[in-house]
Amino acid sequence: MSFENLGLSPKVLAAVKAAGYETPTPIQEQAIPFAVKGRDVLGIAQTGTGKTASFVLPMLTRLERGRARARMPRSLILEPTRELAAQVAQSFEAYGAQHNLTVALLIGGVSFVDQNRKLDRGADVLIATPGRLLDHFERGRLLLTGVEVLVVDEADRMLDMGFIPDIERIVKLTPFTRQTLFFSATMPPEIQRLTEAFLSNPERIEATPPSTTGENISQFMLFTPCDPKQKRAALRKAISGQDVTNGIIFCNRKRDVRVVQKSLRKHGFDSAELHGDLDQHVRLETLGGFRDGKVKLLVASDVAARGLDIPAVSHIFNYDVPFNAEDYVHRIGRTGRAGREGMAITLVTPQCRQLIGAVEQLTKQKFEWLGDAPDDADWEARPRGARDAGGRRADGAKRARPAGRGQPAQRAKQKSAPKPARAGKPAPGNAAPKKANARRSPCDSGKKSANNALGDNVPAFLRRPV
Ligand code: AMP
C-alpha cells in the first residue's frame, strides 16, 4: 500500500514525500481512508506507530476547502499535556507547509495575549490542553460551534490525569454533526464508555493489540535495594554498563526526578530534568536540548514525558516500577520507535513484586533479569497504592513463583543478554539485616513508613504486610 492510495490530496502527498515517508504505517493505512471521507475513527494505537500523521494528514486534506472565522475554529485537537500539544502543532507545521492554514496552540503556562490574537484572526486548527481551552471559552474568547473535526488524542492519559469531565464538557460544546477521531493506547471501561458517547458508527482500528510492548525493545529487570543511595548507585551502574546513546530515566515522583538528576550530574553524567513543576519555557527548552542531542540523559516524570516523540532514544531506565502498569507500556514506548532497536531496564526493589506482577500480566510476558532473579526470600510486602491495568489494586495479581537463585531466570526474549549490571543485591548471608533497614526507608511505597520514628523497636503488628 502506498500513500497515493489513501485518498489524500496532492498537496498533502507532496508534504509526505518531503517528510521522507515511503510507505504508510499500519495505523495510517487503516485510519486515513476512513478519516478523509469524514467517518469517525476509533484508533487503538501505542505511541510511535505514526498515529499523529494518521489524523493530521486527513485533516489537512479536509480543511483545504473552506475558511476559518474569527473565534470559531474549524477543527479541534485535544491533548493531555502541553508538550504533546506543542508536538502536534509542529506536525501541522511540517505536514502543512504547503497549506495556508492557521494553527493556534492553546496551552497553559504561556501568556493569553498571543493566543487571543490567533483566535481573533480565526483558526483552522486549534490544538489545546483541556484546561486552557475551557479558560478561553469561559472568558468568551471562542465558540466551538464551528468545529468540523474533533480529535481526542491519548484518551487513556486524559483519564489518568482527571481530564474526563473537562473532555465531556468540551465535546458537548461542539456540534453533533462533527467528525470525531478518537485515539487511545489502551481501552479501560471508562474510555470505552466515552467512545460510545462521542463517536457515531466509528471505524475501529487496532494498530497493535492494546497494552503490548514493542517487539523491538529488549526489556530487563534489575533487582536493587530500596535504599535511595544504593538505588541511585545501581542506576549509574546500569547506565554505565550499557552503550547508551541517549536515554530517559523515569521516576514515579517529581521529587525523585530532581534528586536523581542532581545525583547523576554530580557523578559526571550529562543529564537534565523534566517534570510538571518546571516553567513551560524551561520544559520546552530541555526537551529541545534532548531532542537535538545536547543532553544525553533526561530524568522525567510520567506526565511530562507521555507521548513525546523523540525519534531516537536508545535506552529507557525505570528508576521506579510505575504504580500504574499501563505507564510501563507508555514509558518503554519512548524507545524502539519507528522500527529501531531499543532497550528498557527497570529497577525493581524488594517491595515491587506485585507491581512487576501487574506489568507482566498486562504485557503478557515474563521479564529477564540482569544478574540473578530474586527468589521468594528477597521480596517484601507490597507497596500501597499498586494498581493493575483496570485501576484495581494489584494485590490479587497471580504470578508464577520467580526463578530461584541459581536457576535460569524466566526469559522474556531469547536475545543475547547484555552485561550483567546488577548492583547492591544483598549477599545471601546478609539478607536479613539489610531487609530490616530497607523496611524503615520510604522506598517505593510513596508513603513515609510509620516505623521510622520507632527505630528498631517496631511492634510486630506494624511489621505485618498490609
Ligand atoms: P507518532 O506515533 O505519531 O508519534 O510517530 C512516530 C514517529 O514516526 C515520528 O517521528 C514520525 O515522524 C514517524 N513517522 C510517522 N509516519 C511515518 C511513516 N509513514 N514512515 C516513516 N516514519 C513515520
Descriptive account of the structure:
By secondary structure, this protein is α/β, with parallel strands linked by helices. It has two domains: about 5-205, Rossmann fold (3-Layer(aba) Sandwich), CATH 3.40.50; about 215-370, P-loop containing nucleotide triphosphate hydrolases (Rossmann fold, 3-Layer(aba) Sandwich). Helices cover about 35% and strands about 15% of the residues. It has helices at about 10-20, 25-35, 50-65, 80-95, 110-120, 130-140, 155-160, 165-175, 190-200, 230-240, 255-265, 280-290, 300-305, 325-330, 355-365, 430-440, 460-465; strands at about 40-45, 75-80, 105, 125-130, 150, 180-185, 205, 215-225, 245-250, 270-275, 295-300, 315-320, 340-350, 370. A seven-stranded parallel β-sheet has the order 3-4-2-5-6-1-7, with helices on both faces. The protein has a seven-stranded parallel β-sheet with strand order 10-11-9-12-13-8-14, sandwiched between helices. Helix 12 (about 280-290) links the parallel strand 10 and strand 11. The longest helix is centred in the N-terminal third of the chain and has 14 residues, at about 80-95. The protein is globular. The model is unreliable at about 380-440 and about 445-460 (pLDDT under 50). The protein binds adenosine monophosphate. The site of adenosine monophosphate (AMP) has 15 residues, from helix 3.
